[in-house]
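ok trying again, last paste got cut off:
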Amino acid sequence: MGIPLADRQELLTQPLIAALSVSRENGQGPLTVPIWYDYTPGGEVWFVTGKDSLKTRLIKAAGRCTLMVERLDPTVRYVSVEGPVRIADAAEGESEAMARRYLPPEAVGPYLAEAANFPPEVTVRLSPENWLSADLGAF
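nice, full thing came through this time. structure:
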């Protein structure tokens, strides 16, 4: 049921909403939240998030995280990647690039106007070390 690397990478390039998971140190289950991300085959998965957010604090503490995407059509298929991360202050244009990936063109400007009021952000870059995938077929 696993899928070939090229197909895993192709699924990860699609603008799907990912589930980001990171360990907690307090004995609770992992923090799992939806997130926008980007990926180029052979490279790192990256996403932008609040510098002082809970997810950033947990990712810094763990040094790694997991990201999972799924699609339902034409078959049920998912890919998850797990690995170490690098965190740096978000570079100019990264939030705009992400907005253009996920939003219709007419929504990008209003979103960026609102995002200008967001607290400082960081870019998290995940190096995929461990892949898990499956194509469950059509139902």
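cool. The helical segments are 5-13, 54-62, 94-102, 105-115. Residues 54 and 107 are 27 Å apart (CA to CA).
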